[in-house]
Amino acid sequence: MSSSGKWIRTSFILLLVTLAIILVVVFFRTPSATKSVNVSTILADIKTDMNNNQQDTLNVSSDTLTLTRGNSPNAIKEAAAINDTFDTTQVLKDNGINYSNSHLLILQYDPPSALGTWVNLLIGYIPFLLIGGLLIFMMRQAQGSNNQALSFGKSRARKELQEIVEFLKYPEKFVALGARIPKGLLLVGPPGTGKTLISRAVAGEAGVPFFSISGSEFVEMFVGVGASRVRDLFDQAKRNSPCIVFVDEIDAVGRQRGAGLGGSHDEREQTLNQILVEMDGFDTNTNVIVIAATNRPDVLDPALLRPGRFDRQVVLDRPDIRGRVAILQVHAKGKPLEKNISLETLAKQTPGFSGADLSNLLNEAAILGARRNKRSIGMSELEEAIDRVVAGPARKSRIISEREKAITAYHEVGHALVARLLPNTDPVHKVSIVARGQAGGFTMLLPTEDRYLWSKPQFEDMLAYALGGHVAELIIFGEVTTGASNDIERVTKIARSMVTEYGMSSLIGPMALGHKDELVFLGRDFGEQRNYSEQTAREIDEEVRRIIQEAFDKAYNIVLQNKTRMIMISERLMKEETLEGPLFESLFNQPISDDQYDTPSILAGMPGIDLTGNAEQGNLLPEPGVAHPVNQQLQGPLNGDLN
Question: pTM of the full predicted structure?
Answer without folding.
Answer: 0.64
